[in-house]
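Aim 2 progress update. The chain analyzed this quarter is reproduced below.
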Amino acid sequence: MPAKLKVFIDDAQTAVKPPAGLRMLIRRACNAVAVQEDLDGRFEVGIRFVDGDEIHALNLQYRNVDRSTDVLSFPQGENGAYDTNPESGASVLGSIALNLVAAQSQAKLYGHSFNREVAYLTVHSMLHLLGYDHEKGGLESVQMREKEESVLTELGLPRGGSYV
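Predicted structure tokens:
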């Protein structure tokens, strides 16, 4: 049985108005990762839209990095074992803090749409929640990047295309 994934989205910032359809795209991105990774069962993930100040504070508190960033992942599991939400019985993959201001500026910087940037950051973070790590470089970094691009292509947002 394929995974049943519930995605909770909370908008805790006012700097960027999320465009129509963004929440659906995020849910599609999360579910595409779940399918790609052959998750089986019921899962939950929380996504919080934040601004630069909030993500800076989170980055400092949890990673001891004194700067803003685009996205942070907070996994709730290890080696495929996850905490369970007692109300729903679903396994909790973790939570994602997504800086929409950074996503907006990075979309311009990289010459693609805001939606592609948010989808990329979502897929990237979902892979982190599932234990992937690109920080050390090497083969794992290459594999993570390939998985990201595979999901983005499946969502109709391939690298180098036109996303108007």
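The radius of gyration is 15 Å. The longest strand covers residues 42-50. These observations will guide the mutagenesis experiments scheduled for the next reporting period.
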